[in-house]
Amino acid sequence: MAEPTGIYPRRAALQMLDAVLRRGETLDQAFPAATRQVRKPADKALARALATEALRWLTDLDGAIDSATKQVLPSDAKVRNVLRLMLAGWLRLDTPPHAVIATGLPLLSGGPRRLAHGVFSTLDKQGVTLPSAPTLPDTVQARWGELAARIAPGLAEPPPLDLTLADPARTAHWTNQLSGDSLMPGHVRLPRGSAVETLAGFAGGDETDSWWVQDIAAQLPAQLCGAGEGRHALDLCAAPGGKTLQLSAQGWQVTALDLSKRRLDLLKDNLKRTGLKASPVRADALKWEPKHHYDAILLDAPCTATGTCRRHPDVLHRIGPRQIAEMAELQRSLIERAADWLKPGGMLVYAVCSLEREEGEDQAEWIAQNLDLECLPIAAGSLPEELEPTPQGWLRTHPGMLVEHGGMDGFFISRWTKPRAKS
Fold it and tell me: Per residue in 386-413, pLDDT tens?
């Protein structure tokens, strides 16, 4: 008997779920191998959506499964993962129960198949529902503390699509042209699912009137560098290039450094598409030495990326103390090198797309205590409405902010200046 067509994306989603939860891979890493046998783009998208929604609501899906079983299933049991996907398809993607059963049960055989059928049928009869916001894993709630309850509502839905404009003065034009909304000058927000390549202006080529995809929170670090006026800026760990494009559009002469050839190629493609200018350099920032000092350095440092959890919910289940500590150590090494490359009076913007204190607030405190840098406070007037700097003059964003407008990623940003020599 031939397998139902819909089993192929489910099998791929099952492989992705296993790769994330058992092997600690990212969804992006797991996706190519898992979908190698899936031919249709729509089926690839379905596989990704099933795995993503299962990870987004994992704690709540597990609670439902456990309520319908006499014995708790092992967390890595295949039957549990299949049930997670079946429930995600039903409760999040509106797949009818009969279709869920027809495409989910063939992933199992024997006793596990009968068990999955019984559990799903029980939950269907009970009319089980999900809460208004995902329940975060216990380990995540413990790390984020009181902030966790404010973040969770921002994780309930996949994020919309944000665009950065090369010319903020064209915000009204592009908002109207693309039928979007804007939360600040230079920003346009479109509904999720918008096909980027088909949008007006994608072909670019005009450096004064181009745009690129970039979450609104990720737009803030480069924006806080201000106008370049022909001065020299270093974008450290630059690829795939959104912040490089911003700095170039703001009038900086930009050196864009990154170690990854693949990601630097994306940066070069973005420069070509938009018509903006920068000097890409492939090098290890821990070994590279600049030929001159810089007026501004933007360090969007490698991090755990837990701030991107609304679009990458795998981080909620992969990241723990070991990864956080490793990233924090790397960040300090990069901060120290960047500080040495600043001109007197130059500015360092340190940013991470992480919600972990060790990668944000703790790093800023360490900078203040250990490096010859002075805090350059971020002013409320330089931020979108509803965002406020901390009392120290730093900025902390999280997915629960602007949630009525579609939310934003979690970032920590602090700004520093190197004192000029006293005469």
Answer: 899 999 999 999 999 999 999 999 999 9
Distance from C-alpha of 7 to C-alpha of 4, rounded to nearest angstrom? 6
N-terminal to C-terminal alpha carbon distance within the chain: 87
Q: Where are the domains of the chain?
A: 7-126, 161-417
Kind plus residue range of the DSSP H or E element containing 52: helix 41-56
Among all chains, which residue has been given the structure tokens 């000097």? 279
pLDDT at 2 over 60: no
Structure tokens at 385: 């409405």
CA angle 105/108/109 to nearest 5° reads 110
For the whole model, what pTM was predicted?
A: 0.94
Q: Domain 7-126: what homologous superfamily?
A: NusB-like (1.10.940.10)
Q: Are 235 and 255 in contact (CB under 8 A)?
A: yes
Residues 22-79: tens digit of each pLDDT:
999 999 999 999 999 999 999 999 999 999 999 999 999 999 999 999 999 999 999 9
Are residues 297 and 233 in contact, defined by beta-carbon separation less than 8 angstroms? yes
pLDDT at site 423: 57
DSSP at 181: B
CATH placement of domain 161-417: 3.40.50.150
Q: Which of 160, 154, 202 is nearest to 182 (CA)?
A: 160
